[in-house]
Write a structure and sequence with these properties.
With 333 residues, the chain is of the alpha/beta class. It contains 13 helices and twelve strands. It has a six-stranded mixed sheet with strand order 4-3-7-8-12-11. Strands 1-2 form a two-stranded antiparallel ribbon. A two-stranded antiparallel ribbon has the order 5-6. A hairpin with a 2-residue loop joins strand 1 and strand 2. 40% of the residues are buried. The N terminus is likely disordered.
Amino acid sequence: MVGVGDTAGVRRHRVAVLVRPGLLPMEIGIVHRIFGQARSAAGEPLYELVTCTPEPGELPTDTDFTVNVAHGPEALDDADTVVVPASGEDYDGEQREGRLSPGMAAALARIRPGTRIASVCTGAFVLAAAGLLDGRRATTHWRSADDFRRMFPAVELDPDVLYTDEGDVLTAAGVASGVDLCLHMVRCDHGAAVANDVARRTVVPPHREGGQAQYIQRPVPEPQLSSTSVARAWALEHLDRPLSLRELAAREAMSVRTFTRRFREEVGVSPLQWLTRQRIERARQLLEETDLTVDRIAAETGFGTAASLRQHLHTALGVSPRAYRSTFRGVGV
């Protein structure tokens, strides 16, 4: 656990992990690991973390050991971000009927307006039962999608994605997608450089392509089937030039049709969607870490013109290159 305190006189962002009986230790570990590894340029922690529960004490997990949680709901009073992981309660008891337990309802009521709230896996049932997801896009574990739709028809459920971001309310899909969501929040708070450093420390990709759909009842590909990894690796080395589907398919000695189908099976998105995402990520890196002009960055990333880069960045992030650089230039690099 990251200790309570200030970093260079600046109050650190406080993350409270709200757990319940039947908690999944892996999901708590994900939140503490990702946020706990985030460091400033001076090497100081950027977040402080605390795990809390409506009734402090020894809690059963979904395994054969228990966890002693010392902090009660008062830890939510001054939290900047609250994360609600999954629990066995999401499969049995009141929560599975779309109702909050009195303890959870009271705990959630302590959260200040404007606090960022996120769920991991079936923790989305808690947020939905509290009315926080009504009229909003959300996700949860794909195996629970049908139950979620039945119980919360006012929520726009998307079971195919790894996470959703509705500003002050975010949701992650099944279990390990909590890594993707936490990295996304770190990236939003402190930029791609800090998030990428956390990913390297944790030995995970800084951004996972595709969504949860690629894990839904999909058989393991036969060993003899060709991969598209060679084409992807080659494309990353040539983002500054126009890349056609035919050219990428030729790298794998496939027809365009076969390559496109295999690519979507392996990555979860189309080749053109993947290329656009890689170019945006490269542009973000250059905006954060270099003094290159927007025109030069557009050329380096294959967008061609500054206008094209501005359009793509605004579509993906909602900001201009100038605004992005102003926000993140020099943070964590």
